[in-house]
Amino acid sequence: MIPATFEYVRARSVREAISLLQQHGGRAKLLAGGHSLLPLMKLRLSQPEMLIDLGPVDELRGIREEGGSLVIGALTTHDEVANSPLVRERVPLLAECASQIGDVQVRNRGTIGGNLAHADPAADYPAAALALEAQLECEGPAGSRTVPASQWFVDLLTTALGPDEVLCRVRVPVQTKGQGWSYIKLPHPASGYSLLGVACLVTVDGGVCRDARVAVTGAGPKAVRLTKVEQALVGKRLEEATVAEAARLASDGLEASDDLYASAEYKRHLAVVYTKRALLRAAERAAG
Amino acid sequence: MTGVRVSMTVNGVEYTRDVEPRTLLVYFLREHLGLTGTHVGCDTSTCGACTVLMDGKAVKSCTVLAVQAEGARITTVEGLARDGELHPIQQAFWDEHGLQCGFCTPGMMLAAVDLLQRNPNPTEDEIRHALEGNLCRCTGYQHIVNAVKAASRIMGAAVGAPAGGE
Ligand SMILES: Cc1cc2nc3c(=O)[nH]c(=O)nc-3n(C[C@H](O)[C@H](O)[C@H](O)COP(=O)(O)OP(=O)(O)OC[C@H]3O[C@@H](n4cnc5c(N)ncnc54)[C@H](O)[C@@H]3O)c2cc1C
Ligand code: FES
Ligand code: FES
Question: pTM score > 0.90 for this model?
Fold first, then answer.
Protein backbone atom coordinates (compact mmCIF):
# COMPACT_ATOMS: atom_id res chain seq x y z
CA MET A 1 0.00 0.00 0.00
CA ILE A 2 1.38 3.34 -1.06
CA PRO A 3 -0.06 6.70 -0.06
CA ALA A 4 -1.54 9.01 -2.70
CA THR A 5 0.92 11.58 -4.03
CA PHE A 6 1.73 14.62 -1.95
CA GLU A 7 4.27 17.40 -1.85
CA TYR A 8 6.89 17.18 0.87
CA VAL A 9 8.71 19.95 2.69
CA ARG A 10 11.04 19.85 5.65
CA ALA A 11 10.47 22.50 8.26
CA ARG A 12 13.66 23.80 9.89
CA SER A 13 11.96 25.62 12.76
CA VAL A 14 8.59 25.93 14.46
CA ARG A 15 8.23 29.39 12.93
CA GLU A 16 8.76 27.96 9.44
CA ALA A 17 6.26 25.14 10.10
CA ILE A 18 3.64 27.69 11.16
CA SER A 19 4.17 29.87 8.10
CA LEU A 20 3.96 26.79 5.83
CA LEU A 21 0.68 25.83 7.53
CA GLN A 22 -0.61 29.36 6.94
CA GLN A 23 0.44 29.35 3.29
CA HIS A 24 -1.04 25.99 2.46
CA GLY A 25 -4.13 26.07 4.63
CA GLY A 26 -6.19 22.93 4.93
CA ARG A 27 -4.27 21.02 2.25
CA ALA A 28 -1.19 20.50 4.41
CA LYS A 29 -0.52 18.32 7.44
CA LEU A 30 2.35 18.18 9.88
CA LEU A 31 4.38 14.96 9.97
CA ALA A 32 6.10 13.80 13.17
CA GLY A 33 6.79 10.08 13.66
CA GLY A 34 4.24 9.20 11.00
CA HIS A 35 2.93 6.23 12.97
CA SER A 36 -0.66 7.43 12.99
CA LEU A 37 -0.62 9.52 9.81
CA LEU A 38 1.18 7.17 7.39
CA PRO A 39 -1.06 4.15 8.11
CA LEU A 40 -4.09 6.37 7.42
CA MET A 41 -2.53 7.71 4.23
CA LYS A 42 -1.70 4.19 3.04
CA LEU A 43 -5.36 3.30 3.45
CA ARG A 44 -6.24 6.61 1.72
CA LEU A 45 -8.36 7.53 4.71
CA SER A 46 -6.28 10.68 4.82
CA GLN A 47 -4.98 12.37 1.67
CA PRO A 48 -3.15 15.58 2.53
CA GLU A 49 -1.71 17.34 -0.51
CA MET A 50 1.35 18.37 1.41
CA LEU A 51 3.33 17.03 4.35
CA ILE A 52 5.38 19.40 6.45
CA ASP A 53 8.01 17.26 8.13
CA LEU A 54 8.83 18.41 11.66
CA GLY A 55 11.69 15.87 11.82
CA PRO A 56 14.52 18.41 11.45
CA VAL A 57 13.11 20.82 14.07
CA ASP A 58 15.55 20.28 16.93
CA GLU A 59 13.85 22.80 19.21
CA LEU A 60 11.02 20.24 19.54
CA ARG A 61 13.30 17.62 21.09
CA GLY A 62 14.52 16.97 24.58
CA ILE A 63 13.33 16.63 28.15
CA ARG A 64 14.22 19.11 30.86
CA GLU A 65 13.10 19.95 34.38
CA GLU A 66 11.83 23.45 34.99
CA GLY A 67 9.92 24.93 37.91
CA GLY A 68 8.41 21.74 39.30
CA SER A 69 7.55 20.30 35.90
CA LEU A 70 9.16 18.24 33.20
CA VAL A 71 9.05 19.95 29.84
CA ILE A 72 8.98 17.37 27.09
CA GLY A 73 9.52 18.35 23.45
CA ALA A 74 6.76 17.27 21.06
CA LEU A 75 9.16 15.16 18.97
CA THR A 76 10.31 13.10 21.95
CA THR A 77 9.68 9.47 21.07
CA HIS A 78 7.73 7.06 23.24
CA ASP A 79 10.96 5.10 23.71
CA GLU A 80 12.81 8.18 24.92
CA VAL A 81 10.06 8.96 27.43
CA ALA A 82 9.86 5.35 28.62
CA ASN A 83 13.62 5.09 29.19
CA SER A 84 14.52 8.61 30.28
CA PRO A 85 16.00 8.45 33.81
CA LEU A 86 14.51 11.90 34.46
CA VAL A 87 10.97 10.84 33.49
CA ARG A 88 11.26 7.55 35.35
CA GLU A 89 12.28 9.37 38.50
CA ARG A 90 10.09 12.46 38.34
CA VAL A 91 6.96 11.32 36.49
CA PRO A 92 7.00 7.53 36.67
CA LEU A 93 3.34 7.40 35.61
CA LEU A 94 4.25 8.85 32.22
CA ALA A 95 7.16 6.43 31.76
CA GLU A 96 4.93 3.50 32.72
CA CYS A 97 2.39 4.63 30.14
CA ALA A 98 4.95 5.21 27.36
CA SER A 99 6.52 1.80 27.88
CA GLN A 100 3.19 0.13 27.09
CA ILE A 101 2.52 1.87 23.78
CA GLY A 102 2.47 -0.48 20.79
CA ASP A 103 5.75 -2.36 20.40
CA VAL A 104 9.43 -1.42 20.37
CA GLN A 105 9.42 -0.33 16.73
CA VAL A 106 6.35 1.88 17.27
CA ARG A 107 7.94 3.41 20.37
CA ASN A 108 11.14 4.12 18.44
CA ARG A 109 9.26 6.29 15.92
CA GLY A 110 6.06 7.60 17.51
CA THR A 111 6.20 10.93 19.33
CA ILE A 112 4.38 12.33 22.34
CA GLY A 113 3.31 15.40 20.34
CA GLY A 114 1.93 13.32 17.47
CA ASN A 115 0.13 11.03 19.87
CA LEU A 116 -1.59 13.87 21.73
CA ALA A 117 -2.31 15.86 18.55
CA HIS A 118 -3.84 12.84 16.85
CA ALA A 119 -6.01 11.97 19.87
CA ASP A 120 -6.77 8.43 18.81
CA PRO A 121 -9.59 7.13 21.02
CA ALA A 122 -7.48 4.06 21.86
CA ALA A 123 -4.19 5.89 22.46
CA ASP A 124 -2.49 5.64 25.84
CA TYR A 125 -0.91 9.03 26.49
CA PRO A 126 -4.25 10.88 26.64
CA ALA A 127 -5.23 9.06 29.85
CA ALA A 128 -1.85 9.77 31.46
CA ALA A 129 -1.95 13.43 30.36
CA LEU A 130 -5.38 13.84 31.98
CA ALA A 131 -4.40 12.15 35.25
CA LEU A 132 -1.15 14.14 35.45
CA GLU A 133 -2.95 17.39 34.55
CA ALA A 134 -0.36 18.06 31.85
CA GLN A 135 -0.25 21.39 30.02
CA LEU A 136 0.12 21.46 26.26
CA GLU A 137 2.13 24.35 24.86
CA CYS A 138 1.24 25.34 21.31
CA GLU A 139 2.59 27.99 18.99
CA GLY A 140 0.69 29.64 16.17
CA PRO A 141 0.65 32.81 14.08
CA ALA A 142 -0.69 34.77 17.07
CA GLY A 143 2.00 33.56 19.45
CA SER A 144 2.00 30.80 22.03
CA ARG A 145 -0.66 29.51 24.36
CA THR A 146 -1.00 26.75 26.89
CA VAL A 147 -3.94 24.37 26.95
CA PRO A 148 -4.62 22.17 29.99
CA ALA A 149 -5.10 18.51 29.14
CA SER A 150 -8.64 18.77 30.53
CA GLN A 151 -9.52 21.10 27.63
CA TRP A 152 -7.36 19.48 24.96
CA PHE A 153 -9.42 16.43 23.98
CA VAL A 154 -12.57 17.68 22.27
CA ASP A 155 -13.95 14.65 20.47
CA LEU A 156 -12.94 11.67 18.36
CA LEU A 157 -9.55 12.58 16.77
CA THR A 158 -10.28 16.21 17.57
CA THR A 159 -8.29 18.47 19.88
CA ALA A 160 -8.15 22.12 20.82
CA LEU A 161 -5.19 22.59 18.45
CA GLY A 162 -5.84 25.34 15.89
CA PRO A 163 -5.34 24.72 12.16
CA ASP A 164 -2.14 26.82 11.98
CA GLU A 165 -0.74 25.72 15.32
CA VAL A 166 2.08 23.39 16.27
CA LEU A 167 2.07 21.49 19.55
CA CYS A 168 5.57 22.24 20.83
CA ARG A 169 5.94 20.96 24.36
CA VAL A 170 4.13 19.00 27.01
CA ARG A 171 4.58 20.30 30.53
CA VAL A 172 4.02 17.64 33.17
CA PRO A 173 4.04 18.46 36.91
CA VAL A 174 6.49 16.20 38.71
CA GLN A 175 4.98 13.65 41.06
CA THR A 176 5.52 14.22 44.73
CA LYS A 177 6.27 11.99 47.68
CA GLY A 178 3.18 10.27 48.97
CA GLN A 179 1.70 9.98 45.51
CA GLY A 180 0.95 6.56 44.14
CA TRP A 181 0.49 5.98 40.45
CA SER A 182 -0.19 3.37 37.80
CA TYR A 183 -1.01 2.90 34.17
CA ILE A 184 -2.49 -0.40 33.13
CA LYS A 185 -4.13 -1.43 29.90
CA LEU A 186 -5.64 -4.35 28.09
CA PRO A 187 -3.92 -4.21 24.70
CA HIS A 188 -5.78 -5.14 21.56
CA PRO A 189 -4.15 -8.45 20.66
CA ALA A 190 -3.35 -7.42 17.08
CA SER A 191 -2.65 -3.68 17.14
CA GLY A 192 -1.39 -3.18 20.67
CA TYR A 193 -3.62 -0.13 21.11
CA SER A 194 -5.66 0.04 24.31
CA LEU A 195 -8.93 -1.79 24.32
CA LEU A 196 -9.06 -0.06 27.63
CA GLY A 197 -6.42 1.77 29.64
CA VAL A 198 -6.55 3.42 33.06
CA ALA A 199 -4.15 6.00 34.47
CA CYS A 200 -4.31 6.99 38.10
CA LEU A 201 -2.50 9.22 40.50
CA VAL A 202 -3.48 9.26 44.17
CA THR A 203 -2.11 11.47 46.92
CA VAL A 204 -2.11 9.83 50.31
CA ASP A 205 -1.32 11.58 53.57
CA GLY A 206 -1.56 9.98 56.97
CA GLY A 207 -3.07 6.90 55.36
CA VAL A 208 -5.94 8.91 53.89
CA CYS A 209 -6.49 9.73 50.23
CA ARG A 210 -6.34 13.54 49.79
CA ASP A 211 -6.57 13.68 46.03
CA ALA A 212 -7.38 11.13 43.35
CA ARG A 213 -7.16 11.44 39.62
CA VAL A 214 -8.34 8.63 37.42
CA ALA A 215 -8.59 8.73 33.63
CA VAL A 216 -9.69 6.11 31.16
CA THR A 217 -8.93 5.68 27.46
CA GLY A 218 -10.25 3.27 24.85
CA ALA A 219 -13.90 3.10 25.86
CA GLY A 220 -15.46 5.95 23.92
CA PRO A 221 -14.53 8.72 21.46
CA LYS A 222 -11.98 10.32 23.76
CA ALA A 223 -10.15 9.80 27.02
CA VAL A 224 -11.97 11.13 30.11
CA ARG A 225 -11.47 11.66 33.83
CA LEU A 226 -13.65 9.49 36.06
CA THR A 227 -14.73 12.19 38.48
CA LYS A 228 -17.29 10.05 40.31
CA VAL A 229 -14.63 7.48 41.13
CA GLU A 230 -12.25 10.23 42.22
CA GLN A 231 -14.82 11.81 44.56
CA ALA A 232 -15.61 8.47 46.13
CA LEU A 233 -11.97 8.06 47.16
CA VAL A 234 -11.10 11.41 48.67
CA GLY A 235 -11.06 11.37 52.47
CA LYS A 236 -10.97 7.57 52.60
CA ARG A 237 -8.35 4.95 53.35
CA LEU A 238 -7.55 3.14 50.10
CA GLU A 239 -8.48 -0.31 51.32
CA GLU A 240 -9.60 -2.97 48.92
CA ALA A 241 -13.31 -2.72 49.74
CA THR A 242 -13.34 1.08 49.42
CA VAL A 243 -11.44 0.95 46.14
CA ALA A 244 -13.72 -1.75 44.75
CA GLU A 245 -16.77 0.26 45.64
CA ALA A 246 -15.40 3.43 44.05
CA ALA A 247 -14.28 1.54 40.95
CA ARG A 248 -17.82 0.35 40.40
CA LEU A 249 -18.65 3.96 39.53
CA ALA A 250 -16.20 3.82 36.57
CA SER A 251 -18.92 2.64 34.21
CA ASP A 252 -21.48 5.11 35.53
CA GLY A 253 -22.25 7.42 32.62
CA LEU A 254 -19.10 6.32 30.77
CA GLU A 255 -19.51 6.82 27.05
CA ALA A 256 -18.48 3.58 25.34
CA SER A 257 -18.78 2.39 21.77
CA ASP A 258 -18.95 -1.02 20.11
CA ASP A 259 -16.18 -1.95 17.75
CA LEU A 260 -15.27 -5.07 15.79
CA TYR A 261 -13.48 -6.54 18.75
CA ALA A 262 -15.40 -5.51 21.85
CA SER A 263 -18.89 -4.38 22.73
CA ALA A 264 -19.64 -1.19 24.63
CA GLU A 265 -20.96 -3.30 27.48
CA TYR A 266 -17.71 -5.27 27.71
CA LYS A 267 -15.67 -2.05 27.69
CA ARG A 268 -17.74 -0.62 30.54
CA HIS A 269 -17.11 -3.84 32.44
CA LEU A 270 -13.37 -3.55 31.71
CA ALA A 271 -13.42 0.04 32.96
CA VAL A 272 -14.57 -1.15 36.38
CA VAL A 273 -12.10 -4.02 36.56
CA TYR A 274 -9.10 -2.02 35.34
CA THR A 275 -9.93 1.00 37.50
CA LYS A 276 -9.90 -1.23 40.55
CA ARG A 277 -6.62 -2.88 39.59
CA ALA A 278 -4.97 0.44 38.73
CA LEU A 279 -6.08 2.04 41.99
CA LEU A 280 -4.91 -0.87 44.12
CA ARG A 281 -1.48 -0.72 42.51
CA ALA A 282 -1.34 3.05 43.00
CA ALA A 283 -2.40 2.72 46.64
CA GLU A 284 0.31 0.14 47.22
CA ARG A 285 2.93 2.46 45.74
CA ALA A 286 1.66 5.42 47.76
CA ALA A 287 2.16 3.35 50.88
CA GLY A 288 5.78 2.87 49.71
CA MET B 1 5.38 14.90 -9.14
CA THR B 2 8.87 16.23 -8.59
CA GLY B 3 11.40 14.12 -6.82
CA VAL B 4 12.95 14.99 -3.50
CA ARG B 5 16.64 14.39 -2.97
CA VAL B 6 17.48 12.09 -0.08
CA SER B 7 20.85 10.92 1.23
CA MET B 8 21.34 8.17 3.74
CA THR B 9 23.97 5.64 4.75
CA VAL B 10 22.83 2.07 4.29
CA ASN B 11 25.07 -0.67 5.66
CA GLY B 12 27.97 1.75 5.66
CA VAL B 13 27.53 2.94 2.07
CA GLU B 14 26.26 6.43 1.35
CA TYR B 15 23.47 6.72 -1.21
CA THR B 16 21.87 9.82 -2.70
CA ARG B 17 18.74 9.43 -4.81
CA ASP B 18 15.79 11.45 -6.02
CA VAL B 19 12.57 9.84 -4.84
CA GLU B 20 8.87 10.50 -4.92
CA PRO B 21 7.98 11.70 -1.40
CA ARG B 22 5.49 8.87 -0.97
CA THR B 23 8.19 6.22 -1.40
CA LEU B 24 8.26 4.10 1.74
CA LEU B 25 11.68 3.31 3.16
CA VAL B 26 11.13 -0.43 2.64
CA TYR B 27 10.53 0.07 -1.10
CA PHE B 28 13.48 2.43 -1.32
CA LEU B 29 15.69 -0.30 0.13
CA ARG B 30 14.22 -3.11 -1.96
CA GLU B 31 13.53 -1.46 -5.28
CA HIS B 32 15.88 1.50 -5.49
CA LEU B 33 18.89 -0.10 -3.79
CA GLY B 34 18.12 -3.75 -4.59
CA LEU B 35 18.41 -4.79 -0.95
CA THR B 36 15.62 -7.36 -0.92
CA GLY B 37 16.55 -8.93 2.42
CA THR B 38 14.09 -6.56 4.09
CA HIS B 39 10.67 -8.11 3.59
CA VAL B 40 7.16 -6.73 3.27
CA GLY B 41 4.69 -8.88 5.20
CA CYS B 42 1.59 -6.99 6.23
CA ASP B 43 2.32 -3.52 4.89
CA THR B 44 0.26 -2.22 7.83
CA SER B 45 2.87 -1.76 10.61
CA THR B 46 1.87 -4.99 12.32
CA CYS B 47 4.20 -7.87 11.43
CA GLY B 48 7.71 -6.45 11.77
CA ALA B 49 9.06 -8.27 8.68
CA CYS B 50 10.25 -4.90 7.35
CA THR B 51 12.22 -4.03 10.51
CA VAL B 52 15.55 -2.28 9.92
CA LEU B 53 17.77 -0.25 12.24
CA MET B 54 17.53 3.50 11.80
CA ASP B 55 20.29 5.27 13.71
CA GLY B 56 20.64 2.06 15.70
CA LYS B 57 16.98 1.64 16.59
CA ALA B 58 14.54 -0.92 15.22
CA VAL B 59 11.82 0.63 13.05
CA LYS B 60 9.17 -0.71 10.71
CA SER B 61 10.39 0.53 7.34
CA CYS B 62 6.91 0.15 5.80
CA THR B 63 5.83 3.02 8.06
CA VAL B 64 8.71 5.41 7.42
CA LEU B 65 9.02 7.55 4.31
CA ALA B 66 12.38 7.31 2.57
CA VAL B 67 12.60 11.12 2.79
CA GLN B 68 12.29 10.87 6.60
CA ALA B 69 15.53 8.88 6.63
CA GLU B 70 17.49 11.89 5.35
CA GLY B 71 20.93 11.76 6.96
CA ALA B 72 20.15 8.54 8.82
CA ARG B 73 22.26 5.43 9.26
CA ILE B 74 20.26 2.40 8.16
CA THR B 75 21.22 -1.21 8.81
CA THR B 76 19.47 -4.00 6.96
CA VAL B 77 20.02 -7.74 7.27
CA GLU B 78 22.56 -7.48 4.45
CA GLY B 79 24.67 -5.28 6.72
CA LEU B 80 24.90 -7.66 9.66
CA ALA B 81 27.68 -10.00 8.48
CA ARG B 82 31.24 -8.62 8.40
CA ASP B 83 34.02 -9.79 6.14
CA GLY B 84 32.21 -13.02 5.35
CA GLU B 85 31.61 -13.77 9.01
CA LEU B 86 28.07 -14.00 10.30
CA HIS B 87 26.93 -11.58 13.00
CA PRO B 88 26.41 -13.41 16.33
CA ILE B 89 22.64 -13.07 15.94
CA GLN B 90 22.80 -14.75 12.51
CA GLN B 91 25.03 -17.52 13.83
CA ALA B 92 22.68 -18.04 16.76
CA PHE B 93 19.56 -18.24 14.54
CA TRP B 94 21.40 -20.87 12.50
CA ASP B 95 22.62 -22.85 15.52
CA GLU B 96 19.31 -22.75 17.39
CA HIS B 97 17.01 -23.34 14.39
CA GLY B 98 15.48 -19.91 14.88
CA LEU B 99 13.83 -20.01 11.47
CA GLN B 100 11.76 -22.23 9.25
CA CYS B 101 10.59 -20.44 6.11
CA GLY B 102 12.79 -17.47 6.96
CA PHE B 103 10.33 -14.78 5.98
CA CYS B 104 10.21 -13.09 9.39
CA THR B 105 13.90 -13.71 10.10
CA PRO B 106 15.56 -10.48 8.92
CA GLY B 107 13.10 -8.40 10.93
CA MET B 108 13.41 -10.67 13.96
CA MET B 109 17.19 -10.43 13.90
CA LEU B 110 17.22 -6.64 13.65
CA ALA B 111 14.67 -6.28 16.46
CA ALA B 112 16.89 -8.64 18.49
CA VAL B 113 19.97 -6.51 17.75
CA ASP B 114 18.10 -3.44 19.06
CA LEU B 115 17.32 -5.40 22.26
CA LEU B 116 20.87 -6.71 22.74
CA GLN B 117 22.31 -3.23 22.33
CA ARG B 118 20.13 -1.99 25.19
CA ASN B 119 20.21 -5.09 27.28
CA PRO B 120 23.14 -7.43 26.60
CA ASN B 121 21.80 -10.13 28.89
CA PRO B 122 18.01 -10.25 28.56
CA THR B 123 15.74 -12.71 30.32
CA GLU B 124 13.33 -14.87 28.34
CA ASP B 125 10.52 -12.51 29.36
CA GLU B 126 12.43 -9.47 28.17
CA ILE B 127 13.19 -11.17 24.85
CA ARG B 128 9.54 -12.01 24.26
CA HIS B 129 8.53 -8.47 25.17
CA ALA B 130 11.10 -6.96 22.80
CA LEU B 131 9.88 -9.12 19.91
CA GLU B 132 6.20 -8.20 20.40
CA GLY B 133 6.23 -6.25 17.16
CA ASN B 134 7.44 -9.20 15.08
CA LEU B 135 5.18 -12.02 13.98
CA CYS B 136 6.30 -15.49 12.93
CA ARG B 137 3.88 -17.93 11.29
CA CYS B 138 6.19 -20.94 11.49
CA THR B 139 8.34 -21.44 14.54
CA GLY B 140 6.06 -20.90 17.52
CA TYR B 141 8.74 -18.46 18.72
CA GLN B 142 10.55 -20.74 21.19
CA HIS B 143 13.54 -21.31 18.92
CA ILE B 144 13.70 -17.62 18.14
CA VAL B 145 13.84 -16.82 21.85
CA ASN B 146 16.54 -19.48 22.28
CA ALA B 147 18.50 -17.93 19.43
CA VAL B 148 18.42 -14.48 20.98
CA LYS B 149 19.62 -15.95 24.27
CA ALA B 150 22.41 -17.78 22.48
CA ALA B 151 23.41 -14.58 20.68
CA SER B 152 23.60 -12.75 23.98
CA ARG B 153 25.98 -15.44 25.25
CA ILE B 154 28.16 -15.27 22.13
CA MET B 155 28.27 -11.48 22.28
CA GLY B 156 28.95 -11.49 26.01
CA ALA B 157 31.86 -13.89 25.49
CA ALA B 158 33.38 -11.84 22.67
CA VAL B 159 34.03 -8.74 24.74
CA GLY B 160 34.25 -5.66 22.58
CA ALA B 161 32.39 -7.30 19.70
CA PRO B 162 30.24 -4.77 17.88
CA ALA B 163 26.62 -4.96 18.98
CA GLY B 164 25.48 -4.61 15.39
CA GLY B 165 25.08 -2.30 12.50
CA GLU B 166 27.52 -1.11 9.86
C1 LIG C 1 1.23 -0.83 14.97
C2 LIG C 1 0.93 0.39 15.78
C3 LIG C 1 0.56 0.25 17.11
C4 LIG C 1 0.29 1.37 17.89
N5 LIG C 1 -0.06 1.17 19.19
C6 LIG C 1 -0.32 2.24 19.97
C7 LIG C 1 -0.67 2.08 21.33
O8 LIG C 1 -0.71 0.97 21.87
N9 LIG C 1 -0.93 3.19 22.06
C10 LIG C 1 -0.85 4.44 21.53
O11 LIG C 1 -1.08 5.41 22.23
N12 LIG C 1 -0.52 4.63 20.23
C13 LIG C 1 -0.26 3.56 19.45
N14 LIG C 1 0.09 3.75 18.14
C15 LIG C 1 0.15 5.12 17.61
C16 LIG C 1 1.52 5.74 17.85
O17 LIG C 1 1.71 6.00 19.22
C18 LIG C 1 1.72 7.02 17.05
O19 LIG C 1 3.09 7.20 16.98
C20 LIG C 1 1.12 8.26 17.63
O21 LIG C 1 -0.24 8.13 17.87
C22 LIG C 1 1.26 9.44 16.66
O23 LIG C 1 2.51 10.02 16.81
P24 LIG C 1 3.42 10.29 15.55
O25 LIG C 1 4.60 11.04 16.03
O26 LIG C 1 3.68 9.02 14.87
O27 LIG C 1 2.50 11.29 14.72
P28 LIG C 1 2.15 11.40 13.17
O29 LIG C 1 1.57 10.13 12.68
O30 LIG C 1 3.30 11.97 12.44
O31 LIG C 1 1.01 12.52 13.26
C32 LIG C 1 -0.26 12.25 13.79
C33 LIG C 1 -1.16 13.48 13.67
O34 LIG C 1 -0.73 14.49 14.56
C35 LIG C 1 -0.34 15.68 13.87
N36 LIG C 1 0.87 16.16 14.54
C37 LIG C 1 2.01 15.44 14.76
N38 LIG C 1 2.88 16.17 15.48
C39 LIG C 1 2.30 17.36 15.72
C40 LIG C 1 2.70 18.53 16.44
N41 LIG C 1 3.89 18.61 17.06
N42 LIG C 1 1.84 19.57 16.48
C43 LIG C 1 0.63 19.50 15.87
N44 LIG C 1 0.20 18.42 15.19
C45 LIG C 1 1.02 17.36 15.12
C46 LIG C 1 -0.12 15.25 12.43
O47 LIG C 1 -0.39 16.29 11.54
C48 LIG C 1 -1.13 14.12 12.29
O49 LIG C 1 -2.39 14.62 12.02
C50 LIG C 1 0.38 2.66 17.33
C51 LIG C 1 0.76 2.82 16.01
C52 LIG C 1 1.05 1.70 15.23
C53 LIG C 1 1.46 1.90 13.81
S1 FES D 1 5.50 -5.04 6.49
FE2 FES D 1 6.03 -3.50 7.89
S3 FES D 1 5.21 -4.21 9.73
FE4 FES D 1 4.55 -5.73 8.32
S1 FES E 1 10.12 -18.61 10.03
FE2 FES E 1 8.41 -18.49 8.73
S3 FES E 1 7.44 -16.71 9.42
FE4 FES E 1 8.96 -16.98 10.88
Answer: yes
